[in-house]
Amino acid sequence: MNDLLEILEQNSRVSVEDLAKLTGKSKKEIQRAIKDYEKKGVIVKYKTVINKDKIKGEKGVVAIIEVQVTPQKDVGFDMVASRIYKFPEVKGCYLLSGTYDLLLVVEGKDIHTVANFVSEKLAPLSAVKGTVTHFMLKKYKEDGVVLVKEEKGKRLAITY
To answer: Contact 61/52 with Cβ under 8 angstroms?
Structure first.
């Protein structure tokens, strides 16, 4: 990945002027490159990482769901994945190697919402052979950003 993309990935709010200084390119070159990256789909979205645990009343449930599927003739996993990732509850969908074929990140307002998604929308799909659901208990790091403050000097209690 080039310098421009690395800088934008870490902080998409860096000004064009600062990007030019950091990369040694002109402002016009930077603007043209960014527009080109957006057009080609290299830059897909500008995102803010929000620690929802810090927002009162914003509690929700995040689940990681492993899914075994039967690949479809001539299209493999793509058709099944497309059908699944179009559900609004699905925030991420990844093809895996190993025992399970797809990994989903699913969000809901509570555990029942996620359970209903699995039982009423996901499991009934003919290509889905099985699922395993893991509920996220605490986020320590997301998108490369540490979400918890480390307390300096705090020592663990010693027990015997």
So the answer is: no
- The token pair at 102 is 């797809």
CA angle 32, 30, 12 (to 5 degrees): 110
Measuring CA to CA, how many Å separate 78 from each of 48, 73, 95, 106, 124? 28, 10, 9, 19, 18
Residue pointed to by tokens 């492993």: 66
Ordered by start, the domain boundaries in the chain are: 3-40, 60-138
In this structure, is the dihedral angle defined by the CA atoms of residues 126, 130, 135 and 139, taken in order, positive or negative?
negative
Q: Distance of CA 131 to CAs 99, 126, 156, 159, Å?
A: 11, 13, 37, 39
pTM: 0.75
Q: What is the pLDDT averaged over residues 115-135?
A: 96
For domain 60-138, the CATH class is alpha beta
